Structures are given as C-alpha cells and as structure tokens.
Amino acid sequence: MTTNRYDAIVIGGGHNGLVAAAYLARGGKKVVVLERRPLVGGAAVTEEMHPGFKFSVFSYVVSLLRPEIIRDLDLPAHGLQILPLESTVTPMDNGDYIAGWADWDETRKELCRHSPRDAEAMVEFGRLMQHMAMAVKPILGMVPPDPASMSPGDLKGLLKLGGHFRSLGADRFHALYKLMTMSSADYLDEWYEFDTLKATKSASGIIGTFLGPRSPGSAYVLLHHYMGEIDGAFRAWGFQKGGTGAISNAIASAAKAHGCEIRTDAAVDHVLVNGGTTAVGVVLKNGDELRAPIVISGLDPRLTFTKLLDPKQMPTDLIEGIRRYKFRGSSGKVNLALSALPNFTCLKGDKELAARAARGAFSISPSVEYLERAYDDAKYGQFSRNPYMDIVFPSMIDPGMAPPGKHVMSAFIQYAPHNIEGGWDDAKRDAFGNAVINTLERYAPGISKLILHKQVITPADIERITGLTEGNIFQGELALHQLFFLRPVPEWAKYRTPLRGFWQCGAGTHPGGGIMGASGRLAALEILGR
Ligand SMILES: Cc1cc2nc3c(=O)[nH]c(=O)nc-3n(C[C@H](O)[C@H](O)[C@H](O)COP(=O)(O)OP(=O)(O)OC[C@H]3O[C@@H](n4cnc5c(N)ncnc54)[C@H](O)[C@@H]3O)c2cc1C
Fold first, then answer.
1. Domain region containing 299
2. 42 CB under 6 A from ligand 1?
3. Into how many domains does the chain fold?
4. Is the distance from the beta carbon of residue 301 to the nearest atom of ligand 1 less than 6 Å?
5. In terms of Cα–Cα distance, which of 213, 155, 138, 183 is closest to 366?
6. In 3D, which of 390, 64, 60 has the Cα closest to residue 227?
7. What separation in Å is there between the alpha carbon of 66 and the centre of ligand 1?
8. Which residue minimizes the CA distance to atom 21 of ligand 1?
C-alpha cells in the first residue's frame, strides 16, 4: 500500500529535482519525487524514437554537472559514465575547415594553418578563461548573498565573495568584469583575428539565449559554458553513455538507494496551502493528496508561482517579478536516425579524419556575420534560414545508441524563436526542419538521402513536452539581470518562497541552467540547514 505522508515532496523529476531529492533522502528525510511524464529527467532524457535508435531528445552533451554531486551521490556506481568529445570541427564556406582537438599542440598546429597570431593568442586566452572559470566556480557552489540585505548571513556571504574577488588580482577581476558585460564577439575581437575561429567560440555565447554574438551580455553565456569540467579538465564536454537520460537515471538510482520514492505519470495540480502561509502538501491532477511539511518545486519560476500556487495569494512584487522574468526560448533541436555517416565536404574524403571528427562535434558557424544574420531572422520573428548548429553523432561515441552500421545525429539549433510570427504549427515545424536539412546539405551533400527518421523540435514542442516555459532551455535566460541574487527575482533568490515549507530547486534559481545539478543541491542543503 502506498503511503501519502512524507517528510518532503519534490515536484518534477528533472535532474535538479532528482538531485534535491537524493540529497534530502541522504540527509535522512522520507522523500517522494512526483514527475508528470512517464520517465524522469525533464530536459535530460533518452528515448527510442525509431526502432533501435536512441535519441538524447533535448540536452545532448555534459560538462557542467558539479563534481561534488558526482562524488556525494557516487554517481559512477549508479551508471554515470562520461565519454570525452575529442574535437570541434567547423566547416568553412571556402571548403576548408578549422578544428580544435583535445590535444592542445594539435590544435595549435591546426590554428597556425589559419593564423599563427591566433595560435599564439590561444594559449594566453585558454589560461585566462580557465582562471575566469575558477573565479566563478565558488559562486556556483554558494547561495548567492544579496548585497541589498543587512542580514548576518548575507553580510558574511558578501564578505567572503569580496575577499574572493580581491584575491583574483586587478587584471583577472577586470577581465571578469568585461566578460560579465561585453558581447562575445567584441570580447573575442580583443584576442583573435581569424573570423571562423571567433564565430565558433562566440557560438557558446548565444546558446539558449535570445542574443546574437554582437549583443552585450553574450560573453557571460560564453563563460557559463566554459565553467564545466570533466575529471578536473575545465571546458571539457563529454557524452554520457546511453545519452543524457542515463545521467538522470543515475541520479534517480542514487536517490532510490537512499530510500527516495519516485512516482512517474504523477502530475501535480497544485500545492496545498494552510492558512495562506504554509505549504502542507500537494494535490495531483488525478485528485490524490500527498502531505509533507517540505514541498519543493523543480519547475521553472512561472509554473512554480503562477500554476502550482494561486498567484493572487502571492506578494504582488513577486508575481510582477515573475511576469518580467525573461524566458524567450530561442533554440530548437533536430535528431536524425541515419543509414550511414554523412560526408562533410571539408574533410575531403579523408576517412580516418572523418571518423575522428565524427567522435567530436561539428559547429555550423562559418563566420560571425553568419551567426548575427541567423539572429536577425529571429529578432524579426522568424526561424533562422541558415541557422547555427552544434552537431554530434552519439552513435560514434557510444555504439549502443544505434543499430550496427547506422547512426544517430543530434543537431542543436539556434535560432528558433518561441514567439515566431503567427505562432508555431505543423507547417512551420516542417519548414524549420527543412531549413536545417538544406543548410546541412551545403556542408554534407547527400545527407537527406541517409535519413531514416527525423525528429524536429521547436521551442513550442520543448514547452509542451518538458514544461519549460516558452521553451527556454535554462528555465529562463542567463542574462545578468536574472542571475545570482536576482534569479529568479530579488528577495526570492535563495530557493525560498513566501510560503513556509515551500521551496524552489529548478534551473530557474541560482546558478541556472544546463545539466549542472547545482540548484538542486544548494536548495537541499538550505532545507537541511547546512
Ligand atoms: C533542446 C535542449 C538542449 C539542451 N542541451 C543541453 C546540453 O547539451 N547540455 C547541458 O548541460 N544542458 C542542455 N540543456 C539545458 C538543460 O537540459 C536544462 O537546463 C536542465 O535539464 C534543466 O533541468 P531542471 O531539472 O532544472 O528542469 P527540467 O528539466 O525542466 O525539469 C522539470 C521537470 O518537471 C516536470 N513537471 C512539469 N510540470 C509538472 C507538474 N505539474 N507535476 C509534476 N512534474 C512536472 C517536467 O516534466 C520535468 O521533468 C538543453 C535543454 C534543451 C531544452
């Protein structure tokens, strides 16, 4: 018989909800996770969308997952196995390519082909970005102190942060300030001259954001993507064996090992509130009631405060803040089941090089102007006719993702605006998919003929399937005005809410999106009082 009384209820089995649940269960609490879909993971799921072909439907690569979570939850024992992505190859419009390899010397040699000056600059740039990532790293692991607050906890946090920034020294602090405020293209202009290199690097600054490479603020998103590490190597991105769903399953397995219960097909309708002040449980869509003194939402801020609760019972400031909080989903995804690997013209039929490159990523970012024009389309309410793409072939890294000799291809696409003129419908989804395939045809002619199955995902689909408002991949834009003590809104940035016993733990809280788990962990530690 299932019981309906718990110490803590986690709403939403996204990876952050699962991390929060695992920490709470490890802390001795009796926890249940309630997930609306038939499977856990949210935007980190693997599904067999065509017989024998497994797609990491949404998120596809990993780097940001906090090492302390991997350690604390012993995730490798539960199936976490991150395989390195060896390279990034960017096809150029003149038929050549530029590659970055895992081996620095090799990358340097490759860069020398295009610009010896940039090859020199790369060493210093790499060092600086590593220092910047180290500078921000402690902030990822702390509850953000509010500079407007005089509480002893905030003052202590601010003092700690001030000390940390002082220890960086003037040069690094100034570099950090620039990264926080500049556009990625302008920032990279200060370092490099070779346009395709700048385009490929600046692409990290536009992912998931309604910004172009020349928009101020994109340099911070670039830094956000540099903050990941795998086995201590900063900036390294990898592929989870079995796809990103296997990361969620590993966290879920760790949570269960600590006694946590996970219910799927269990959509929460609303939070039960006692006397207008205290959360005491939830009511499911099927009418079932579950009770607990701690209720945690892993949903994004809009769903948390306006769907799970009656916004009329929340402070006006908070609801106004949530109304202003920017989602503006701008990304799509195209997943393909292929009968064979496509041939990229730039690799000139070199089979060995092609196989090696296909174990890494391909970036469709031939120039900064190309990216900026892709953004122009989105700015004026259209999907990009010639989009930016980040492509990986998961089956080349983990053969279990496709039947022998066949392949899966994952293409992350920017830009596909949620607020497309006239709204998304089936015809627009088809047209968007065609724009992606037509662009691919230019760099890998004949790819269309290899397609056995195609899954085209628009921001409206992301919202419908995962619940992510407006399809924003980070549960809200990673813009400076909604980061740190402002995420999601001032005064409610510490995982707390105006209701006693009701907490937030999704990527819409500090430090934000990506498969990072940091929000879930920090929320759980706050709840446990550690
Ligand atoms: C297309 C795409 C590509 C991405 N690529 C990458 C990548 O390669 N690498 C990377 O690090 N990050 C990537 N991201 C971002 C990353 O996946 C997300 O930021 C992260 O997974 C968010 O996790 P979360 O647990 O905070 O929220 P979510 O994953 O949004 O989880 C929320 C959960 O709540 C559930 N839910 C919603 N409503 C209810 C309800 N009423 N009752 C019960 N459950 C409910 C949802 O079904 C979902 O499972 C990508 C995201 C997308 C969409």
1. 8-82+243-326+478-528
2. yes
3. 1
4. no
5. 213
6. 64
7. 16
8. 43
Residue 416, domain member (yes or no): no
What 3-state DSSP class applies to 462?
helix
CATH number of the domain that residue 249 is part of: 3.50.50.60
> Which of 20-24, 29-33, 104-108, 342-346 bottoms out in mean pLDDT, i.e. has the lowest?
104-108
- What would the pLDDT profile of 370-387 be if each residue is shown by its tens digit? 999 999 999 999 999 999
In tens, the pLDDT along 440-495 reads 999 999 999 999 999 999 999 999 999 999 999 999 998 888 989 999 998 899 99
Residue closest via CA to ligand 1's atom 48 equals: 42
Q: Please give the model's pTM, rounded to 2 decimal places.
A: 0.96
- How high is the pLDDT of residue 227? 75
Ligand 1 centroid to residue 514 C-alpha, Å: 8
Position 403 in a domain: no
| Ligand 1 center to 76 CA (angstroms) | 21
Q: Is the pLDDT of residue 365 over 70?
A: yes
Residue 443 CA to ligand 1 centre (angstroms): 31
Find out whether the beta carbon of 506 lies less than 6 Å from any atom of ligand 1: yes
Residue 142: other Cβ atoms inside 10 A: 17
What pLDDT is attached to residue 267? 98
Average per-residue pLDDT for the chain: 94
Residue 288 lies in a domain: yes
The number of beta carbons lying within 10 Å of the beta carbon of residue 232 is 7
Name the residue of 36, 309, 465 whose CB sits within 8 Å of the most ligand 1 atoms, as the mutation to test its pocket: 36
Q: Return the SS3 of 170.
A: helix
* 333 occurs within a structural domain: no
- Residues 6+ away with beta carbon under 8 Å from 223: 129, 132, 133, 136, 179
Does residue 3 sit in helix, strand or coil?
coil
E strand spans, 439-530: 451-457, 502-504
